[in-house]
Description:
Distance between the termini: 32 Å
Oligomer: single chain
Mean pLDDT: 91
Largest sheet: none
Radius of gyration: 15 Å
Order of helices and strands: HHHHHHH
CATH superfamily: PhyR, sigma-like (SL) domain
Number of domains: 1
Number of helices: 7
Helix content: 55-70%
Amino acid sequence: MSPFPKEWSFLPDAWKFALVLTGREADATALVSAALQAVSKRVDLHEREWTKRVFFSILCRDGAKAVTVGNPETPAERRIFILHQLPEPSRQAITLLCLGVFSGEHLAGLLGMSEPELARSLYEARAILKKHLGPKA
Length: 137
């Protein structure tokens, strides 16, 4: 059973996404906390999907400002390091796609791109990952 109410069940994926964006566990926690504070001040968020979309929009906006980390320190940071080093917007696109948080149409809208642009971004991310991880990536 999840420790979160159903309308907040996306928080574990939000933290994973924030970890990929920031590269540091502490920074991911701070990013999610800041997004929670921002969302809690909004009075227009009554529906779960809209709340989730606004929450991830905040993570995308603020997480894109994070500096790329050069040296992972914890096991979790080491596991996501290759994703963390991807260029934007490929990093956000491939991470959100893998987490399965949004459909392709909603994902493109969230990232402010068309579906063909999203497809190109995902292709670029996969090409980089294949180069580093081999053909099964």
